[in-house]
Amino acid sequence: VQLQASGGGLVQAGGSLRLSCAASGRTFSRDNMGWFRQAPGKEREFVAVISGSGPRNYYADSVKGRFAISRDNAKNTVYLQMNSLKPEDTAVYYCASAQVFGVSSHLYEYWGQGTLVTVSS
Question: How far apart, in whole angstroms, are the C-alpha atoms of residue 52 and residue 98?
């Protein structure tokens, strides 16, 4: 399985970005897809997860109400719409796939390379 994340960049506080993660190599619609992030000097943390069929999702409290995860199984792509961005959202964002729906990074088998999001104040 290969995951390719994209869409990161520099944005001012209060702005928006949409991250994409294109998957290949396995039946995408069966996988739960998650987004994680790692800020400089900090551990990787869970951001959001969506189930294979799409109707179930879960968010970290820090992003709830601001971020939205979605997927297009026809395009083998998962998205993370990030609104009302804050400087503390600055991090490298990673997409990952898992056969189990959950928030622990240990559940995720495959990882993308990461895309950097920088939010300026």
Answer: 9
